[in-house]
Specification:
This protein is α+β, with helices and mostly antiparallel strands. The protein has helices spanning 4-31, 36-60, 62-70, 82-101, 114-121, 123-151, 167-180, 192-204, 207-210, 240-253, 265-278, 284-293, 298-315, 333-344, and strands at 154-158, 161-162, 186-189, 218-222, 225-230, 233-238, 259-260. It has three domains: 4-129; 153-253, TATA-Binding Protein (2-Layer Sandwich), CATH 3.30.310; 262-344, no CATH class. The chain is built from 14 helices and seven strands. The strands form two sheets. A five-stranded antiparallel sheet has the order 1-6-5-4-3, with helices on both faces. Strand 5 and strand 6 (233-238) form a beta hairpin.
Length: 353
Amino acid sequence: MLPIGVVFAFIGRQLGRVLGLAFNWATIVLFGRVPKDRQLFLSGMAGASVAWPIVLAGIALPSFATFVFGLFTVPDWLHPWVRLVMLALAVVLPLVVGALSSRLPDADKRPRGRALAATVLRGYPNALALFVVIAWMMFVAPIGKLRALAKRWDSVHVPIAVKPGRYERVVADLAGALERAGINVRRRRAPWAYEVPGKVLAVLGGESVRTLVPTRLSQLAHPEFEMTLHPMDLAMLGKSRTLAHARAAIVRELTFTEAYQTWTKEAQVFEDRLARSARGDGELETIGADLKRADLDFEEWEILYRLLLQVRLRVSPTESDEVDVRDEPVPPLRERVAAAVRVLAGQQNGGAR
């Protein structure tokens, strides 16, 4: 027979695993996929916000503290200091949340001086808001996952960083791209449970957090899939074939909108340059040469390469698929003219439609 302590230890590990999954879902639903240079800050804010109420409960209810510390091995020499450490954490953890929140904006927009001190002090209401939101979403997000499993739907999260103040425009552009591809969608408000986080943060959160989390989310609904736009994530849920069709439509029909498809600052600079080139203001050859030398993750490089090709096709149908066109010999004039004639005649790959 297994000792009762082993049984409780196993249950504790399983519970921790479930809560870990729920926490991951909650952060995706709440914040979307945050760019790499801010992901660590959000993780620290979330962790400190969850730990703070536990510390407060441990101070107010010694029996709760005994239960919590019963899950860990505390050295004997540390026992006299436990309460003092908890009191210190009760003061420090919200300040950590505030300090990390000051790092969320771009470097040139981060608070300094008195504004920085005010932002750090706002860690107290921010920590409370984040705890309420995360605790709420730890219950809501798994329910949504179970709903998808019950319908036998797949879920996909596509990184997308909506530019400040452009949320409504991006939703409209996404709907237009789907409709041009023959996918009729109906715009609606996201379920109220998904909007609770934004409403809580609108009341208690600081400006730096509020800019990342909208108070109102929109969904584009189809009988076989749903699309929810978060400020830094496009959450898509639906049947495999319909989901693939919708993703292909967005890639094909929506080259640029008021949002970035990449998530690092370096890659987003390339997106801005490509968008200007699509409007006739920019040198594609220079962009291609710079992209070839850029130090980017393959996933971001692939996105930028696709955008580069789409812009080239928009500007000229006879362009090359080489990143840096200077690395590829220019086709003979006869081939270029023949390619242009085929395009103008409405042919693809040399064959009639």
